[in-house]
Amino acid sequence: MSASKFKTICVFCGSSLGKKKSYQDAAIDIAKKLVMKNIDLVYEGGNIVLMGLISQTVFDGGRHVLGVIPKPLMDKEITSVTIGKLKPVANIHQRKAEMNLHSDAFIAMLVSGYGTLEELFEVITWAQLAIRNKPIGLLNIDGYYNSLLSFIDQAVEEGFIKPSAHHIIASASNAKELIEELKDYYPCHKEVTVKLN
């Protein structure tokens, strides 16, 4: 898949700043790379901290921004000014469906809570079952995802994840390399015979 085929990328990111300035720098960097490559953004809808940095930078760069947020989270994660188009939905399940509908690929950076981690693993599961074969990348800033990647390695070694599904996730330590990895992404797991819709 060439870079031009990525019209929109969904970015999962933290709803807090984290303790390192490098996290904020990475959020701005990934946003600038999306703008440079004429890629629109779908994200989790909040306009605070890292989510706000990414969405504002992409929006200021002239790209389309779509935030999808469950109504119960709006008071917590949105200030008075919205960025781009905001689509309120009833719950997390609807948010995941909408983000998938409007995205060509997924990037996870600085997943900060159980909910966002669950969203990431759902798109990984979709890929494993060949329900959807959209590229999935981890932006591994300062080794943030090393433990998760080690867990996946161990799960493969212990026989709980098939070796053919081991490389569903692309990873890189910076935005430029990760987008290149996603360009070359091809599902290398074995597709299941029956696809669930």
Commentary on this structure:
The protein is α/β, with parallel strands linked by helices and 197 residues long. The protein has a single domain, classed as Rossmann fold (3-Layer(aba) Sandwich). 40% of the residues lie in helices and 16% in strands. The protein has a 7-stranded parallel sheet with strand order 4-3-2-1-5-6-7, sandwiched between helices. β3, α3 and β4 form a beta-alpha-beta unit. α1 (21-36) runs parallel beside α2 (49-60). Residues 191-197 have low confidence and may be disordered. It comes from Dioscorea cayennensis subsp. rotundata. Cytokinin-activating enzyme working in the direct activation pathway. Phosphoribohydrolase that converts inactive cytokinin nucleotides to the biologically active free-base forms. It catalyses: 9-ribosyl-trans-zeatin 5'-phosphate + H2O = trans-zeatin + D-ribose 5-phosphate; N(6)-(dimethylallyl)adenosine 5'-phosphate + H2O = N(6)-dimethylallyladenine + D-ribose 5-phosphate. One of its GO terms (cellular component) is cytosol.
How would you briefly describe this protein structure?
The protein is an alpha/beta fold and 197 residues long.
Mind sketching the topology for me?
Layout: E1 8-12, H1 21-36, E2 40-43, H2 49-60, E3 65-70, H3 74-77, E4 85-89, H4 92-101, E5 105-108, H5 114-128, E6 136-139, H6 146-157, E7 169-172, H7 175-183
Parallel strand pairs: 1-2, 1-5, 2-3, 3-4, 5-6, 6-7
Helix pairs in contact: 1-2
